[in-house]
Amino acid sequence: MPFWPDFLSTLAKGIIVTLEILAISMPLSVILGIALGTARVYGNTIIRGIASAIVITFRGFPVLVTLLILFFGLSDFGIYIPPFWTAVVGFTLCSGSYQSEYVRGAIRSIDIGQSLAAKSLGMTKMQEVFYVILPQAIRRAFLGITNELIYLVQYSSLAFVVGVPEMFAVTKTFNSLYFRPVETFSTLAAVYLVMISVLVVFFRGIERRLRLPGIEITTK
Fold first, then answer.
1. In this structure, what DSSP letter does residue 110 have?
2. Residue 184 vs residues 6, 7, 16, 198: alpha-carbon distances, Å
3. Tens digit of pLDDT for each residue in 10-29?
4. Over the Cα atoms of the chain, what is R_g?
5. Which pLDDT belongs to residue 214?
6. Cα(57)–Cα(187) distance, rounded to whole angstroms?
7. Which of 132, 149, 161 is nearest to 206 (CA)?
8. Backbone angles phi, psi at 44, to 5 degrees
9. Residue 154: which of 181, 183, 193 has the closest Cα?
10. Domain boundaries, given as residue ranges, for the chain
């Protein structure tokens, strides 16, 4: 079979797997980041301790090491996670831990007058957090969160270490058969560039909708 048709069909299968990983791990990492960031500010001593331990652990571990521990380390204890879900869990934990710091910093940056105003309206603490604090905090943390999601696209290339046939893995395997690294990896780089460019445009559209008067942030 000619090189290009064979390569492009193989790459397309890898792209689908990569998109599936990102479609699951991106929203999960955002949810985890918001939950951890909020817990570290408003949780009791135990909850803050657990959230801090998760963040410190997965910010301290390289993504590659996290994937290897989840896949090979847990199997020694009889816990087997399929390669695809190993990648999803690993990327979610690592990215969510970093995102939590942006959320925590954004919450801390909100003027205490907002809390006092919520209390004066008779809001409970939970209502204050969910209806007053978090909406503002997420807007302020948006740039950092989107940067982490863009990094997540790049992290996805590490899924090959646990046997996930994502687009980097299939390109690497294909190149080992044809020995044409310039064509294969240049094409792969172009695909990553297109994916990230689409995300940047998408995030800019969301940022414009979330923008607060007097606070200008730009997604680069």
1. S
2. 11, 8, 17, 22
3. 999 999 999 999 999 999 99
4. 20
5. 59
6. 35
7. 149
8. -75, -175
9. 193
10. 3-210
